[in-house]
């Protein structure tokens, strides 16, 4: 078959203008076609087997990685639960007066969004829950996944106004999860939906992918209106220069504030505020 192919190619170069060549090539192709079909049928199972083996190896590697990740997550969950119980016991013994914590000291109030702000530089919505439902000013507001979207700024009997994280008046005391990095989450460039974590010290360690949560503590002269630990977003870029006093940290919010249809207002339980 190889020799025949070489002969046909040689003839093709030498007699490219001859009409009889095409007939010879067609005849050769007709003769070789059954062999090509037979070879394809013989080779196909081996090719499929090779693909199956490659997929099986990749699946086993992925399964092993997921098992390791699950083992680490389970260990961390046990450690966190143990630390939580120890913390609760110590607070009971010492009669420690702590600020309200999330979610134990808060009751969720689900509410539909009834209106959106029409102002050019405002990122605010109106929710169909107000004083009659226990909603008060500065209550935190989450989306259905539990991600922070803003806070209550104005309340009437049956509705309330929410300033979203992307509103120019928004500022949230925040910190990196499991890292010593704190700052203020503010709106990024208008129209992008991104956030900035300002006033992060240069000595603080912070990396791309770190999760940012509410700090639940005062930052400078700005008191925190949020309990500790509410997820805000994920760090997408960290930079700094010799002339800047702080790091420049960009944060992608977890919540999509542009597609909100309903929210959850966290109302402090009676006696906790």
Defining traits:
Thrombin, subunit H, alpha+beta, 3 domains, 273 residues
Could you provide a short overview of the structure?
By secondary structure, this protein is α+β, with helices and mostly antiparallel strands. The chain has helices at residues 2-14, 19-94; strands at 106-116, 124-127, 140-142, 148-155, 160-164, 172-176, 182-187, 195-201, 211-214, 231-239, 246-253, 262-268. It contains two helices and twelve strands; from the N terminus they run H-H-E-E-E-E-E-E-E-E-E-E-E-E.
Describe it for me?
The structure is a single chain. By secondary structure, this protein is an alpha+beta fold. It has 3 domains: 1-97; 106-167 and 262-268, Beta Barrel (Thrombin, subunit H); 172-259, Rod shape-determining protein MreC, domain 2 (Thrombin, subunit H). 33% of the residues lie in helices and 28% in strands. It contains 2 helices and 12 strands, in the order H-H-E-E-E-E-E-E-E-E-E-E-E-E. The protein has helices spanning 2-14, 19-94; strands at residues 106-116, 124-127, 140-142, 148-155, 160-164, 172-176, 182-187, 195-201, 211-214, 231-239, 246-253, 262-268. It has a 6-stranded antiparallel β-barrel with strand order 1-2-5-4-3-12. Strands 6-7-8-11-10-9 form a 6-stranded antiparallel beta barrel. A hairpin with a 5-residue loop joins strand 3 and strand 4 (148-155). The N and C termini lie far apart (89 Å).
């Amino acid at each position: 078959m190889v020799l025949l192919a070489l002969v046909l190619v040689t003839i093709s170069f030498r007699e490219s203008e001859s009409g009889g060549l095409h007939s010879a090539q067609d005849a050769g192709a007709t003769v070789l076609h059954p062999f090509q079909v037979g070879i394809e049928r013989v080779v196909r199972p081996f090719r499929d087997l090779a693909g199956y083996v490659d997929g099986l190896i990749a699946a086993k590697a992925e399964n092993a990685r997921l098992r390791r990740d699950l083992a680490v997550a389970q260990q961390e969950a046990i450690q966190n639960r143990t630390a939580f119980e120890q913390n609760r016991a110590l607070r009971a013994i010492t009669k420690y007066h702590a600020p309200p914590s999330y979610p134990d000291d808060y009751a969720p109030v689900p509410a539909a969004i009834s209106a959106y702000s029409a102002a050019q530089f405002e990122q605010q919505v109106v929710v169909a829950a107000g004083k009659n439902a226990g909603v008060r000013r500065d209550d935190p507001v989450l989306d259905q996944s539990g991600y922070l979207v803003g806070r209550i700024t104005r309340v009437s009997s049956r509705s309330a106004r929410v300033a979203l994280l992307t509103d120019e008046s928004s500022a949230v005391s925040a910190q990196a999860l499991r890292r010593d990095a704190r700052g203020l989450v503010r709106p990024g460039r208008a129209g992008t939906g991104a956030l900035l974590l300002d006033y992060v010290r240069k000595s603080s360690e912070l990396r791309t992918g770190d999760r940012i949560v509410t700090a639940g503590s005062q930052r400078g002269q700005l008191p925190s209106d949020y309990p500790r630990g509410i997820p805000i977003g994920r760090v997408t870029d960290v930079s700094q220069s010799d002339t800047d006093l702080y790091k420049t940290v960009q944060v992608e919010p977890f919540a999509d504030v542009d597609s909100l249809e309903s929210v959850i207002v966290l109302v402090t339980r009676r006696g906790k505020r």
